[in-house]
Amino acid sequence: MMMKNIYILTAFFLTFAFKTMHGQYVLKNIDDVTWYINIPQEDIYLHYNSVFMLTGETLHYKVYCKNANTKELSNNSKIAYVKLVGKEGLVFEHKIRLANGSGKGDFFVPPSIRSGNYKLIAYTRWMTNGSRDDFFQADLSIINPYANITFDENAVDIVTQNVFQPKESDKLDLVLDADAYDKRQAVNISLIAKEGSAIGGVYSLSINKKEDFINDDGKLTTIAFQEALKDNRVSSTRKIGEIINLPEFKGEMLSGMVVDNQTGQPVSGQEVALSILSKEAYQDIVRTNENGIFYFQLLNEYSTPKALIQVLNDQPSDFKLTINDASIREFSDLQFKEIKLHPKHKDAIIARSIHNQIENGYANVKQDKIIKREYGELFYGNPIRTYVLDDYKRFSTIAKTLEEVVDDVYHERKGGKQRFINVRERETDPYYEVDILPLIVVDGATVQDHESILYFDANKVESISVLRDEYYYDKRVYQGVLMINTFDGDYYNNLQGEHIQLIDLKSPQQDKDYFYQDYDLQSKSADRIPDYRTQLLWEPNISLTGERLRIRFFTSDVRGTFEVSLEGFDKDGKPVSIKKYFKVE
After folding, report:
1. Topology classification of domain 385-501
2. I need a labelling partner for 245 at 20 to 30 A (CA). Which of 27, 72, 143, 393 fits?
3. Burial of 275 (0-12, 13-18, 19+ CB in 10 A)
């Protein structure tokens, strides 16, 4: 049987002081202020596949995080926040991992969303030190064809405006091999660098059906984005004693505060444990600083977003633990445009909705490939012995199971009061005959109350694993580790108190390779599968390593005009934006 492992995170030790109830960074002296000023501010640009969507379609987006000073992609922040907000509040919030200043994500628009105009918003934690006006904001119109749609005879009839105007670039040529194509025909695109700076750039490409009744001239291109930015934009001015939010230099950041329940004062030097309740049983321990603040840096991937943070102390109920989330921002003052649709476009909306339903019906043969995350492996030094309890006679409690089944583990009453679990040390161990307790981990969570485990129903337990060696966390030494895994994996629901917090980490979006329709390689039987894609291609990771790049994709069974939209930045951080159009007849 595979046992659950414990992963150790490298703690990120900060050298500055913190003086606020919410775990923000307090500038203690002039050196801190100088440090703050010298970190460049950031800009976020989002290239998303369409300004108009029906429920049942997928929003794709690429995040570009730029250094506000150099205009090059930023290596500072490793996490970006992308949100979709409507009149009724938050629709989704995504964390996006940034590598070399870029990342990507997607969102399937469910039928529960109402028709209306929505705002796409993107920023980094470091950007919250500036003006909210500097966050990326863009409009996205969504129509729910499964609910009543209000049509307006006075709405602008964009069909007559013929808005399909190409936009060229002075850095790149985007060349199509034809102006019109048949259904299910190959389309070949050539990207040709006009000048050396385009080589080495980072770009994203969307090929999407252009609806006559949606005018996307207001869609923010990289060029318009760059022009709208303030020159030499910096973080807001701060003085000694004022607070800031720290950038996520290494990965996701979790912070909070520990206070004394009696006095309400922050507690310094107090150990705090983080348990990510995934199959990796990921653990870390840090200490609060002089102002009671603790910080965790999540450097590794994890498979489950639930986490438990608790005060480690002989009397944990004497403390109260609070969590800070610096990424939370309210957007109650946003202005939303009204969607106005002329009744003559009703048939087009219905037809597109039917196409979406057919496509979703065949989603199992057109799936995106989720890229498997890599999880680290724990080095214990010596093997752990695992007892699968179904292989032994069952006993009613953990206490009895330890006595009858598990070697080298026993329990005893100390001080005439509470019972504790012990793991027997070896005579050669450095702490032999020193009274040190083991680390107890149940379903991934560190458990301090040994007695509560001893009288737990053993029939709910799948396995017990034992490590006899000393185990080290920071300055804390454990005499071995006892790991207990229940069948339901939810023991954390038994852990209660103000000293403990169960949180949802909202794990970053999983990386994907998006579905690619290739009629050259598919069998003849695939020809019988309907193809009503309106998004013919979404390629978020385009880089030019030479003067020419060829891209090939296939049209679908949908006729109409399609837009080819390429956005990105060259190696010097200069914007590149191209639009071309072709027809499927």
Report:
1. Ferric Hydroxamate Uptake Protein; Chain A, domain 1 (2.170.130)
2. 72
3. buried
